[in-house]
Write a structure and sequence with these properties.
The chain is about 30% helix and about 15% strand. It is an alpha+beta fold and about 425 residues long. Strand 6 (about 265-270) and strand 7 form a beta hairpin. The radius of gyration is 22 Å and the shape is globular. Helix 3 (about 45-65) runs antiparallel to helix 5 (about 130-155). It has nine helices and twelve strands. The protein has a four-stranded mixed beta sheet with strand order 10-9-8-11. A three-stranded antiparallel beta sheet has the order 1-4-12, with helices on one face. The chain binds N,N,N-trimethyl-histidine and fe (iii) ion. N,N,N-trimethyl-histidine (AVJ) binds near residues 143, 144, 147, 387 and 417. It catalyses: gamma-L-glutamyl-L-cysteine + hercynine + O2 = gamma-L-glutamyl-hercynylcysteine S-oxide + H2O.
């Protein structure tokens, strides 16, 4: 039975690595070399940087970290260290050209698969226990795939990506606007999920007062009411720094929206279309989410509230891996993995709802919470401080639940994302809450 477990872990790690590389190929082969090296936005790296950075992290952790190999090209490490060069300056670096970057990433991958074959995944080294380092690197690649999809959204020119339309809600008007989550303790975070990253650990009991939370993310239609009601022109709805941002950048709507003959349109992956009223709003900053909630007489949920709604099973008293239970995500449960290039309408994925009745907690849009990104009690950085620890503090707000652009390997009820409260190019939306 032990050997069978180790074999299953190896298969899981292999599938995760191969799935990530297929997506990386889709995102980097769908544009020409000129577009791979171009800077589509000062907010983003050129796509060719992400490509070689993916290979370089894999080399660092799987070839050098797990297998103790020598650096393949020590001279390029600095170029692909995210802390040495800010995104805006990356196009001017002597980066590997597209063909070289592809060849480097492929060479690293070939060797990494040999390392996977030759490593005992059930050993006592924390880095390889349950295949952790391989899972971490698959998640890292998928996170950069999401970053590259953001770059695709920011590029101008005709569409190069296409995907099916996500499923419509099963029933017309069956959902209440909000559900009650009664007060009481629940287990937040995890000490048992094998590929959970350091900031999700350890599991700890967290007491949460009763609250109401929206059954679905706030829709474009609801957000338009905020706009029509003068949302962006009335200071009283905004945090001071949010109001400063609205004035400085003359914001009037979410990123990628514009008004044409009285109608709101948006640009989405190279296509201009009417803003869909029943779809979760996306590309809003934390400040916009916070202002909307205040205007609606509500507030953003805290991170603990979000996780209790998403994981707590009131029958067993246990926290589960996902809103629907412990089973891995499947296409009928959540909009993940870039199967679609947009969130599904509010009310979709009835099978994926949590026991309290809230839906679309996983997938569709990243959801801003009111919480700063902070370590859990008992946190310890692993395997490197620069993944989470250096970002802890009041500058970053936590996002939960994952977007349509997140792969299942990098998404679970405990997964924590974070960003600056001004960020809007990310696939961010929100839901609101209130005290019970
Ligand atoms: C967790 C999404 C904030 O993209 O900056 C990628 C993930 N860390 N490479 C980011 C990450 C290192 C990180 N986020
Ligand atoms: Fe990275």
């Amino acid at each position: 039975p032990h050997e069978a477990d180790a074999e299953a872990l190896r298969q899981r790690a292999l599938t995760a690595l191969l799935t990530a590389r297929e997506r990386t190929a889709l995102l980097t082969d769908s544009v020409d070399d000129h577009e791979l090296t171009a800077q589509h936005s000062p907010l983003m790296s050129p796509l060719v940087w992400d490509l070689a950075h993916i290979g370089n992290q894999e080399e660092l952790w799987l070839l050098r970290g797990v297998a103790g190999r020598e650096a393949m090209r020590p001279e390029i490490d600095g170029l692909y260290d995210a802390f040495e060069h800010p995104r805006a300056t990356r196009p001017s670096l002597p980066l590997l050209a597209p063909a070289e970057a592809r060849a480097y990433a492929a060479e690293v991958r070939g060797r990494a698969l040999d390392v996977l074959d030759g490593t005992v995944l059930d050993g006592c080294r924390p880095l390889v226990r349950a295949g952790f380092a391989f899972g971490m690197i698959a998640q890292h690649e998928q996170q950069h795939d999401e970053t590259m999809l953001i770059t695709h959204q920011l590029r101008s020119g005709p569409a190069v990506l296409a995907a099916a339309v996500p499923p419509a809600p099963p029933e017309a008007a069956g959902l209440p606007a909000e559900v009650l989550v009664p007060g009481g303790p629940f287990t937040m975070g995890t000490s048992t999920e094998p590929w959970a990253l350091d900031n999700e650990r350890p599991a700890h009991v967290c007491d949460v007062a009763g609250f109401f939370i929206d059954t679905a993310p706030v829709t474009c239609g609801a957000y338009q009411e905020f706009i029509e009601d003068g949302g962006y022109t009335e200071q009283r709805w905004w945090a001071p720094e949010g109001w400063a941002m609205v004035r400085e950048h003359e914001l009037t709507a979410p990123l990628f929206w514009h008004r044409d003959a009285g109608q709101w349109l948006r640009r989405r992956f190279g296509v201009t279309e009417a803003v869909p009223g029943n779809e979760p709003v996306i590309h809003v900053s934390w400040y916009e989410a916070d202002a909307f909630a205040r205007w609606a007489g509500r507030r953003l949920p805290t991170e603990a509230e979000w996780e209790k709604a998403a994981r707590h099973d009131p029958v067993s008293g246990r926290s589960r891996r996902y809103p629907w239970g412990d089973e891995d995500p499947a296409p009928g449960l959540a909009n993940l993995g870039q199967r679609h290039l947009r969130p599904a309408p509010a009310g979709a994925y009835a099978q994926g709802r949590c026991p309290y009745g809230a839906g679309q907690l996983i997938g569709d849009v990243w959801e801003w919470t009111s919480s700063d990104f902070l370590p859990y009690p008992g946190f310890s950085a692993f395997p490197y401080r620069e993944y989470s620890e250096v970002f802890f503090g009041p500058a970053h707000k936590v996002l939960r639940g994952g977007s349509f652009a997140v792969d299942p390997v990098a998404c679970r009820g405990t997964f924590r994302n974070w960003d600056l409260p001004v960020r809007r190019q990310i696939f961010s939306g929100f839901r609101t809450a209130r005290d019970a």
